Hints:
Blueprint: H1 2-38, E1 41-45, E2 51-55, E3 68-69, H2 71-75, E4 82-84, E5 88-91, E6 97-99, H3 103-112
Antiparallel strand pairs: 1-2, 2-3, 4-5, 5-6
Keywords: Coiled coil
Organism: Chromohalobacter canadensis
Protein name: Transposase zinc-ribbon domain-containing protein
Amino acid sequence: MDKLTTAQSGLFEMQHQYQQLIEENQRLQQALEKEARFDRYRKEETPQGDWVLSLKEDFVTPDEPPHSICPLCREEGRYSLMSRNSSTYRCGFCKYVAKYAPSGISDEVLRKA
Ligand SMILES: [Zn+2]
Protein backbone atom coordinates (compact mmCIF):
# COMPACT_ATOMS: atom_id res chain seq x y z
CA MET A 1 0.00 0.00 0.00
CA ASP A 2 2.90 2.32 0.87
CA LYS A 3 4.51 1.69 -2.49
CA LEU A 4 1.28 2.49 -4.26
CA THR A 5 0.95 5.80 -2.40
CA THR A 6 4.56 6.69 -3.21
CA ALA A 7 4.05 5.83 -6.88
CA GLN A 8 0.89 7.88 -6.99
CA SER A 9 2.45 10.98 -5.50
CA GLY A 10 5.39 10.57 -7.87
CA LEU A 11 2.94 10.49 -10.75
CA PHE A 12 1.20 13.64 -9.52
CA GLU A 13 4.54 15.38 -9.25
CA MET A 14 5.43 14.37 -12.82
CA GLN A 15 2.10 15.58 -14.13
CA HIS A 16 2.64 18.88 -12.38
CA GLN A 17 6.13 19.26 -13.88
CA TYR A 18 4.82 18.30 -17.30
CA GLN A 19 2.13 20.98 -17.06
CA GLN A 20 4.76 23.54 -16.08
CA LEU A 21 6.92 22.59 -19.06
CA ILE A 22 3.97 23.03 -21.41
CA GLU A 23 3.28 26.48 -20.00
CA GLU A 24 6.95 27.47 -20.19
CA ASN A 25 7.07 26.25 -23.80
CA GLN A 26 4.01 28.32 -24.71
CA ARG A 27 5.52 31.38 -23.05
CA LEU A 28 8.80 30.97 -24.97
CA GLN A 29 6.99 30.44 -28.25
CA GLN A 30 4.99 33.61 -27.75
CA ALA A 31 8.20 35.51 -26.95
CA LEU A 32 9.81 34.14 -30.12
CA GLU A 33 6.84 35.11 -32.26
CA LYS A 34 6.95 38.60 -30.78
CA GLU A 35 10.69 38.86 -31.55
CA ALA A 36 10.20 37.52 -35.08
CA ARG A 37 7.85 40.39 -35.75
CA PHE A 38 10.78 42.79 -35.40
CA ASP A 39 12.96 40.82 -37.84
CA ARG A 40 10.93 42.33 -40.66
CA TYR A 41 12.28 45.80 -39.87
CA ARG A 42 15.62 47.43 -40.45
CA LYS A 43 17.20 50.51 -38.92
CA GLU A 44 16.85 53.55 -41.10
CA GLU A 45 18.52 56.90 -40.59
CA THR A 46 16.59 59.99 -41.58
CA PRO A 47 18.40 62.78 -43.47
CA GLN A 48 18.46 64.62 -40.13
CA GLY A 49 20.29 61.78 -38.40
CA ASP A 50 17.43 60.36 -36.33
CA TRP A 51 16.54 56.70 -36.39
CA VAL A 52 13.40 54.71 -37.10
CA LEU A 53 12.78 51.04 -37.83
CA SER A 54 11.28 50.66 -41.28
CA LEU A 55 9.57 47.63 -42.80
CA LYS A 56 11.97 45.89 -45.18
CA GLU A 57 10.96 46.12 -48.83
CA ASP A 58 10.67 42.32 -49.03
CA PHE A 59 7.74 42.42 -46.61
CA VAL A 60 5.81 45.24 -48.24
CA THR A 61 2.49 43.95 -49.59
CA PRO A 62 -0.87 45.57 -50.39
CA ASP A 63 -1.98 44.62 -46.86
CA GLU A 64 1.29 45.74 -45.32
CA PRO A 65 2.24 49.12 -46.83
CA PRO A 66 5.61 50.72 -46.02
CA HIS A 67 5.68 52.05 -42.47
CA SER A 68 8.00 52.58 -39.55
CA ILE A 69 7.97 51.55 -35.91
CA CYS A 70 9.58 53.16 -32.87
CA PRO A 71 13.17 52.04 -32.11
CA LEU A 72 12.88 53.00 -28.43
CA CYS A 73 9.69 51.00 -27.90
CA ARG A 74 11.25 48.09 -29.76
CA GLU A 75 13.98 47.96 -27.08
CA GLU A 76 11.18 47.47 -24.55
CA GLY A 77 9.74 44.69 -26.71
CA ARG A 78 6.82 46.91 -27.64
CA TYR A 79 5.49 47.17 -31.17
CA SER A 80 4.53 50.79 -31.76
CA LEU A 81 3.75 52.28 -35.15
CA MET A 82 5.07 55.76 -35.84
CA SER A 83 2.82 58.29 -37.51
CA ARG A 84 4.40 60.52 -40.08
CA ASN A 85 3.68 64.02 -41.26
CA SER A 86 5.68 66.09 -43.72
CA SER A 87 8.63 66.60 -41.40
CA THR A 88 8.56 64.11 -38.51
CA TYR A 89 7.89 60.55 -37.45
CA ARG A 90 6.21 60.41 -34.06
CA CYS A 91 5.68 57.48 -31.72
CA GLY A 92 2.18 57.51 -30.26
CA PHE A 93 3.31 55.60 -27.20
CA CYS A 94 6.58 57.10 -25.92
CA LYS A 95 6.39 60.37 -27.91
CA TYR A 96 9.79 59.74 -29.50
CA VAL A 97 10.15 62.05 -32.49
CA ALA A 98 12.45 61.46 -35.46
CA LYS A 99 12.91 64.46 -37.68
CA TYR A 100 12.35 63.67 -41.28
CA ALA A 101 12.52 65.97 -44.25
CA PRO A 102 14.18 65.25 -47.56
CA SER A 103 17.36 67.34 -47.45
CA GLY A 104 16.35 69.37 -50.51
CA ILE A 105 13.13 70.55 -48.87
CA SER A 106 14.71 71.46 -45.54
CA ASP A 107 17.36 73.52 -47.38
CA GLU A 108 14.53 75.27 -49.19
CA VAL A 109 12.77 76.00 -45.88
CA LEU A 110 16.03 77.27 -44.38
CA ARG A 111 16.60 79.64 -47.29
CA LYS A 112 13.09 81.08 -46.90
CA ALA A 113 13.46 81.48 -43.12
ZN1 LIG B 1 8.07 54.70 -28.84
